[in-house]
Specification:
- This protein is of the alpha/beta class and 303 residues long.
- It has one domain: 3-Layer(aba) Sandwich (Rossmann fold), CATH 3.40.50.150.
- It contains eleven helices and 13 strands.
- The chain has a seven-stranded mixed beta sheet, with helices on both faces.
- Strand 4, helix 5 and strand 5 form a beta-alpha-beta unit.
- It is globular, with a radius of gyration of 19 Å.
- The chain starts with 13 loop residues before the first strand and ends with a strand.
- The mean pLDDT is 94.
């Protein structure tokens, strides 16, 4: 792991907000399972600090960027596949909201960064977008290709993306995972056509839920390197050159069975009670909308 400066303002002036809770061996050789989208490793995280100059919050020290990419390339996540229905409902709603800003697809080009098994790409293509994805996980890309979905293995630096431009780029739950989010947003800016749009979805560390739960906020996890508020993400996008169009909380759909596993990760007793209840009522597979106000999306435009 290495020490880093603030990714928003560049200052090397910070104070600890949450001390590290990860085991010593995970500092040098973390298990790729901790970087699964559906990991339940709540409360396990590197030291999290807050910049004294601009209030940006981030993990410090962190793993090297190449090590992070290698870990994500090894990720396998069968639980994500079983939660497909909830993801489909979530991404369908995300696309509806996005199209209120960008207009309908009508054959326009879209790139989904961190596409995982390609659920959003599939939904966008069915809605008329010429959508492709890029994803580092070898397992996820193989799963997507089995569904005949055009997913490139890699990152925005993939050779297949050189000189390609898109009308829309999406980053659903991605920006908090990368080593250098400013650089990642700059790459996205460069891959957009003039007047193109970006949608960035992440956790809100300035939300009422985050403030109320403090160190027990479930999104404090090993795989999360950067912790944005709506203000800091908007400032970072503007720093790159984007014009902010809209920013606000957006929730998601989860099957009650999956929600039970998430609750169990926080509190085993409460998780057991919840699971027994939904099993008794025979509603474990029912998807429900969840919005605690601590997930948000920013839509921005390339000037």
């Amino acid at each position: 792991m290495k020490n880093v400066v603030c990714n928003l303002c560049g200052a090397d002036d910070w104070e600890v907000r949450y001390p590290s809770t990860i085991e010593p061996h995970d500092v040098t050789a973390p298990d790729a399972s901790a970087f699964r989208c559906t990991s339940s490793g709540y409360g396990n995280h590197a030291q999290i600090v807050q910049c004294n100059k601009c209030d940006y919050i981030y993990a410090n020290p962190v793993w090297d960027e190449n090590d992070l990419i290698h870990l994500y390339s090894e990720v396998e996540d069968e639980t994500y596949v079983t939660e497909r229905i909830g993801r489909q409902l979530t991404f369908t709603k995300h696309l509806e909201d996005l199209e209120k800003i960008t207009g309908a697809g009508n054959g326009r080009d879209m790139l989904d960064v961190g596409a995982y098994i390609g659920i959003f790409v599939d939904i966008a293509r069915r809605a008329g977008w010429d959508a492709i994805g890029v994803e580092p996980s070898e397992w996820a890309v193989e799963h997507a290709r089995e569904q005949s979905l055009p997913i490139i293995q890699g990152t925005l630096d993939a050779p297949e993306l050189i000189n390609r431009e898109f009308d829309v780029i999406t980053m659903w739950d991605v920006i908090e995972h990368v080593a250098d989010p400013t650089a990642e947003l700059q790459k996205a800016y460069d891959h957009l056509k003039p007047g193109g749009f970006i949608a960035v979805h992440t956790m809100d560390i300035d939300s009422l839920m985050a403030k109320a739960t403090g160190a027990r906020w479930p999104w404090l996890m090993t795989m999360h390197i950067h912790y944005f508020s709506q203000a800091t993400l908007c400032r970072m996008l503007e720093k790159v050159g984007f014009e902010i169009i809209w920013s606000g909380a957006q929730g998601r759909y989860l099957r009650l069975n999956y929600l039970s596993s998430r609750i169990g990760g926080l509190n085993s007793t409460l998780g057991t009670i919840f699971d027994q209840t939904i099993q008794t009522l025979n509603i474990a597979e029912r998807p429900v909308p969840i919005n605690f106000g601590d997930l948000f999306t920013v839509y921005a435009k390339k000037c």
